[in-house]
Amino acid sequence: MTEPVLLVIAHGSRDPRHAATVHALVERVRALRPGLRVETGFLDFNVPSVPSVLESLAARGVSEVIAQPLLLTRAFHAKADIPAVLREAPAGMRVRQAAVLGPSPLLTAALERRLYEAGLTPGDKPTTGVVLASAGSTDPEAIAVIAEIAREWRHTGWCAVRPAFASASLPRTADAVRALRAEGVHRIAVAPYVLAPGLLPDRIARGAAEAGAEVLAAVLGPAPEVARVLLQRYDAAVRAPGGHRSGTAAVEGRVSLGA
What we know:
- It is a single chain.
- This protein is α/β, with parallel strands linked by helices.
- The protein has helices spanning about 15-30, 50-60, 75-85, 105-115, 140-155, 175-180, 200-210, 225-240; strands at about 5-10, 40, 65-70, 95, 130-135, 160-165, 185-195, 215, 250.
- A five-stranded parallel sheet has the order 2-1-3-4-9, with helices on both faces. It has a four-stranded parallel sheet with strand order 6-5-7-8, with helices on both faces.
- Strand 3 (about 65-70), helix 3 (about 75-85) and strand 4 (about 95) form a beta-alpha-beta unit.
- The model is unreliable at about 245-259 (pLDDT under 50).
């Protein structure tokens, strides 16, 4: 039986680095799973759009699609925007929406990878405080997930871990860095919990520089851990029961911690 097509759905951005990073991640996914058909669609700003990809797949006889939101938390885009787009899929096409990527131990491993690439070592953990800087959301469920990730990550040996947000929620990155400094933490690293460059990651970087953080990690981007968790979500969606035809998307159940 032919595997469902994997459709990776990204938000899109006017910043060309965003789409380039999404495409690099998709290429890594293809390399990890040769033979799996992987397509990319964007909600806004970039092409191809999600509806155009679904129409193209339907025209080629594809009837089974797993739609994978390229999102780290289950907020508005995962709960409303993407289901609304998928409900307009061509008649006769079965589309199932996979769970968002986070939280996952693999993503925490990717965060640490980026910190080590920025100059830290595992031996630095007991003397280093980390600001876990996410894009931010007005959804309390998403905010609670970020706070829980910070609490759990602290228990892996870091001196301290504080959440911060680039928009919609507080504290901002600079304020979280200053709070750690006020607690006596002498070395502070900022770990952006975002997938691709753009306006909000740039805001995180400015906040880190403004408050004097010693280390700023890169965004998660096409880290191998991100590609692996994406395929995990795809596999879980393939195994899950349910799904509707006639263009109606079946939304998969939540992952742990409500994300």
